[in-house]
Amino acid sequence: MSATTSNGKAATTKTTFSRETAVSIAIQADASIIWSLLTTASDFSRWNSTVISINGNIALGETIQLISTLDPKRTFKLKVKEFETDKRLVWGDAMGNRVYSLSKNDQGHTVFSMAEKIGGLMFPLFARFIPPFDASFEQFAADLKKEAESIM
Question: Residue by residue, what is the 3-state secondary structure of the chain?
């Protein structure tokens, strides 16, 4: 993962065949609260201003349909590939994966990290059509922090 700090600022690394964006932020809330927010599809758009909707069940092996503010006309069909309660969630499609992870820092806060790597051999042909994720990732992290800390 590219982001090494937990300041809520996104970082993007680009190569010819891929792009990875990552963000990390310290949240003063228990990992179980954050996990519940990340895995309750029907509630996502209430607290997360970057998501229009998520339909489906966020559970291992399930497929969800996500509509993002970055491309509101497109529905992303994403398979939940990893699901480790209170620690790690991965979903994605043939183009890439989004990884959510939770850990503790030295102050006892939960560190939320999110990284998405997209790419492949055909990536150079359509890379210019994919909007930058940095601002959206920063907003996602800020929204999650605000909601999780309000629940405490």
Answer: CCCCCCECCCEEEECCCEEEEEEEEEECCCHHHHHHHHHCHHHHHHHCCCEEEEECCCCCCCEEEEEECCCCCCCEEEEEEEEECCCEEEEEECCEEEEEEEEECCCCCEEEEEEEEEECCCHHHHHHHCCCCHHHHHHHHHHHHHHHHHHC
What's the angle, vertex CA 57, arms to CA 63 and CA 152, rounded to 5?
Answer: 135
148 is written with which tokens? 């999780």
Model confidence, pTM: 0.93
Top pLDDT among 118 and 152 is at 118
Q: What is the pLDDT of residues 1-56, one digit of tens each?
A: 443 456 999 999 999 999 999 999 999 999 999 999 999 999 999 999 999 999 99
